[in-house]
Amino acid sequence: MAEAAVNLSHNAGGLPSGGIEVSMSCLEAQPTFSEEGQPLFTKSMSDCICIATFDHEKLNKKRTLTHLWGGAAAPSFYDALAADISPRTTVIVACGSIGRRDYFETVTVPNVREMLESHMAKHGKAANNLQWLTLWTENEAASGLIPGSFVIQVNGEYGRIKV
Fold first, then answer.
1. How many domains are there within the chain?
2. Alpha helices, DSSP H only, in the chain?
3. Are strands 49-55 and 158-159 parallel, antiparallel or unpaired?
4. For residue 8, is it within any domain?
C-alpha cells in the first residue's frame, strides 16, 4: 500500500467519473464503507480533512472514506468506525488544500488518533497494530493533481487525483 497520484476516468468537465464519490460530511458524519470494486474518492477539500481506512484482515479488503468539514467529527463517527475495523487496519489522514501543515501534524492527526484508539478500546479492540499514514501535498495544481482531492483504490493505494 503506497501513496501515489492516482488516475481516474474524467468526464468532459474534468471531474472524476469512475469510482464512488464521497461528499463533505457535517459534524454528525458516519464513515462511508465500501466493499465494491471501485475507488472511493472525494474532492474540494480546502480546510477539511479526510480519513480513509483499508482493512487488511477483511476478506474483501473493506475500505472507508469520510470527508470531514473542518476536520471535526462527533464521537459517534469514531464509534462507528472503531466498531467495524480490525486492529490491523491502515488509517490515512489527508489534509485539504489550504490547511496549515504544522497544525495538521501536531493537532489534527494526534486528535484523530486519540479519538479512534479510545473508541477501539471501548469495543475491546487493541489499537497498537493500526498503521497510521498521512498525506500532505503542496503545489498540487502545478504537479498535475486536483487540489484538495483524495482517492483510495480497491488495493489500498491512495493519493491525490491526477488531472
1. 1
2. 75-84, 101-103, 109-122
3. unpaired
4. no
- The DSSP result for 80-115, as a single string, is HHHHHS-TTEEEEEEE-SS--HHHIIIIIHHHHHHH
Q: What burial class does residue 15 get, using C-beta atoms within 10 Å of its C-beta: 0-12 exposed, 13-18 middle, 19+ buried?
A: middle
In tens, the pLDDT along 60-104 reads 668 889 999 878 888 999 999 999 888 889 999 999 888 788 898
The residue behind cell 477539500 is: 45
Sign, Cα dihedral of 99, 85, 33, 14: positive
Question: Where residue 137 sits, what CATH number does that domain have?
Answer: 3.30.1330
Query: What is the value of pTM for the model shown?
Result: 0.86
pLDDT digits (tens, 9 = 90+) for 14-61: 555 678 888 888 766 777 777 677 888 998 888 889 999 998 776 566
Instruction: Tell me if 58 is assigned to some domain.
Output: yes
All 3 cell numbers of residue 53? 481506512
